[in-house]
Structure formats: structure tokens, C-alpha cells
Amino acid sequence: MPIDTGDTTWMLISTGLVxxxxxxxxxxxxxxxxxxxxxxxxxxxxxxxxxxxxLWFVLGFTLVFAPSxxxxxxxxxxxxxxxxxxxxxxxxxxxxxGVTFGGYQMMFAVITPLLITGAFAERxxxxxxxxxxxxxxxxxxxxxxxxxxxxGWLADLGVFDFAGGIxxxxxxxxxxxxxxxxxxxRKNFGPDIMVPHNIPLAxxxxxxxxxxxxxxxxxSALASGSLAANTLLVTHIASATSAMVWIFLSWKRSGKPSxxxxxxxxxxxxxxxxxxxxxxDAQSSFILGIVLGFASYYAILLLKEHWKIDDALDVSSVxxxxxxxxxxxxxxxxxxxxNPAGPNGLLFGNPMQFAIQALGVGxxxxxxxxxTAVIMKVIDKTIGLKVKEEExxxxxxxxxxxxxxxxx
Length: 408
Hints:
Blueprint: H1 5-32, H2 38-65, E1 68-69, E2 73-74, H3 98-115, H4 126-148, H5 153-157, H6 165-183, H7 199-217, H8 226-254, H9 259-273, H10 282-306, H11 315-333, H12 352-382, H13 389-394, H14 396-401
Antiparallel strand pairs: 1-2
């Protein structure tokens, strides 16, 4: 099939939108933590953009998308993007140049490990962060992405994930839970240290994430047209509906609707609809958004308030729980009327799809949690994970980067 100029333009725009999400993630997180640590998460996300883009160029793309080695990992055909066509397509995206596809997928590989920064905010050494994101990409993200998106063994079993609910949100969410447990709580963990220092900055980050997510999900159609259009609508409706649920739940709990609640609810809806966005209709996305709102809100209450797990920015709930719910929803709500290349779910005559999706979720969750635990234990035994107590008191901006976000 010849290269399509319209599809290529659409994918270049989508790539730019998805790239925007990484600094947006930094703004979102920085606003929701204490001012003395705000630069540290911005440094992690922005430096992570550079580190992980380079790693993808050198190694990641070939391990995920080069011809499979018995379903487990890609070969080394495309090291340093060698032999990736710029005037011809690859099998995964037949109407756009191969380098366009590789560049688009780079943005997914960049943001996935950086989601975990929200879990270990305010207490991880930057040198440990540097080692962690590289190891996590090589040993967790690249294999899992190959197994599903690179036509590996999970894809052969019929597991579907349109834009990353299993590959990205389930794996990063369960990794965040493991990271929070291994690192332990921040000093004086409780309401006094969980006060956002700059909510407007967090709102800016959330708004840019919402915009970028259209490239994240609708761009995963890998072509302009009806599927991309439906995916964009589905993405927006699920996010808006989840945000509404959070507004009402926060209003009921505290007597006043919360700004931080509405932005967290929107992100929860975006994360949760991601795996199913290319397989469901708008009516189903409305229902899914309601479920995602309730699931993510009460997961935070369970993990943080009842179990006292210090996942600083609730990645395990807002991304992990929603990624699991959205991935399983494919097994119920998916219809080939929306996407003939996708599956039918339980409501459309295929009850086995739910079990297949559950297998994919289970594998991603186990790899994300277990692999993260191993990586962090090794780092802790070698260079150490957590900053010293006095450094935590002073703040990571000064102790790790010798900079201040605000000078008075």
C-alpha cells in the first residue's frame, strides 16, 4: 500500500501531541507536591524525555518491533534505526513511513516509565532514577510491548490493547505500587505533607495531558479516518464522565467540589479508556467513564487512607486500577462494528475475550510489580534508592539539583 500523505500528516501531529504529554506530566506532578520538591519531578520528566528517547533510538524500537524471536523479543535488525524505511512503510502501519511509526511509538516508550515518578516523588535519588528508568524500559516495557504490539506471544493468544492500558497503565500502575512499598513512606506521611503547593500549575499539566491524549489514543489508529474520529470522541466522553464522578464524590465527602479531584478524575478516565478506545462506541465509553471514576476514587481511599501506602500521586489507582478496568472492558464492550480488526466482547457474542484480556492484565501486572521490585532491590543494594532523612527535610530541589523553584 502506498504512503498516504494525509495519514502521515495525521501521525506527525499525533506524535507532537503525545510528546507534549511528558512535560505536561511534569507540570501536573510538580503542582501537586510540596514546592521544595517541584523541580525534582520536572527534572525527572524532562531528563527522562531525553534519556528514554535516546534509548529507544539505540535499542528499544528494534527490541519491540523488529521481527520476533519466538514471540518473546524483537531482533536487532533496527539498532540505531538502521534499515528503518523513511520512504516506505513497515507492516504495522502500511500507509505511513517506517520512521514516522518509530517516532510515534518512541513517545509511548518515553512516558510509560515516567508515570512511575508520581509514586516515588519527594524521596528517590536522581542517580537511582537514572538507572531505574533505563532498566525498567529494557526488562519490563520492551518485552511487554513486544508481546502485545510487536506480534509476540500474547498477541498470538488474542490479547488486545489499543493504546496502552495493559502495556502502559497496568504495568506502570503496578510498578508504582511496588515502588511505593519498597521505598516506604515519606517522613511525616499524612495530610500535612499531602498539600499541593501550586494547583494552577497542576491544572495546566492536566489540560495539556487531556489535549495530548487525543494523539495518544486517536493517533493509535495509525491513520486518519473514521476509526480515529470515533476514538477521539470515545476518549473525550470517558474522561469527562470520570471527571464528573470525581466532582460529585469529592463534593459529597468534603461539602465542596475539589479542583484536584476534577483533574484527577479526568486523568483517570483518560488512562482507563486508553486500551478500549479503538474498540468501543461512545455510549459504552460513557458507562465505562462512570465505572472508572468510582474505581479510581475508591482505590485511592483504600490504598492511601486505609492501607497507608505512600504512592505520592496515586499512580497505582489513577493509572493502574483504571488500566486494568479498561483492559478488561474490551472483553465485555468491544465490537467489530467499531473496528473490524478488533475483537467482539461478551455483549457481542464472544465471552472468551474477557478471559483472554484477564490473562494479558495478569501478565502485565505481575511483570510490572515483580520486575520493579527486583530492579529496585538491586539498585538499593548497590547505589541506594532513597535520599537521606536530612535531604528529604531540605527538599530534593536543593539536595539533588542545587536549584530552587521559587526565589523570594
